[in-house]
Design goal:
Radius of gyration: 23 Å
Pfam families: HTH_31
Shape: elongated
Helix content: 55-70%
Structural class: mainly alpha
Order of helices and strands: HHHHHH
CATH class: Mainly Alpha
InterPro entries: Cro/C1-type_HTH, Lambda_DNA-bd_dom_sf
Distance between the termini: 64 Å
Protein name: Helix-turn-helix domain-containing protein
CATH superfamily: lambda repressor-like DNA-binding domains
Number of strands: 0
GO molecular function, one term: DNA binding
Length: 103
């Protein structure tokens, strides 16, 4: 796994840890609220790359931040994707010639 991905997951885990503590939740309380075990929360906060996305989604829901996940790669805000699409646009658009289908 690339080092940059590992660092990002560790940061995400730390952010979840901080968010949990700011909300006054223990790891056990958060685990109970999302229907998971204590070890799941510990692994998530440690940045374990094997964590399932639904665990993150459930934690974000408890934090009141689930919308941020759905906006993560919103195609309307995907500047790189939009730029790549714009590069492929034709320079000109011509009207098509009408063809007659006489039978």
């Amino acid at each position: 796994m690339p080092v940059t991905v590992q660092r990002t997951l560790k940061k995400l885990g730390g952010d979840i840890n901080r968010g949990r503590r700011r909300r006054g939740l223990t790891q056990q309380a958060l685990a109970e609220r999302i229907g998971a075990g204590l070890s799941t929360i510990k692994r998530l906060e440690a940045g374990d790359p094997r964590m399932q996305l639904h665990v993150l989604a459930r934690v974000l829901q408890v934090f009141g931040e689930l919308d941020r996940l759905s906006e993560l790669l919103d195609s309307a805000q995907d500047d790189v994707g939009l730029a790549l699409m714009d590069e492929q646009l034709p320079r000109r658009v011509r009207t098509r010639k009408k063809t007659s289908h006489a039978f």
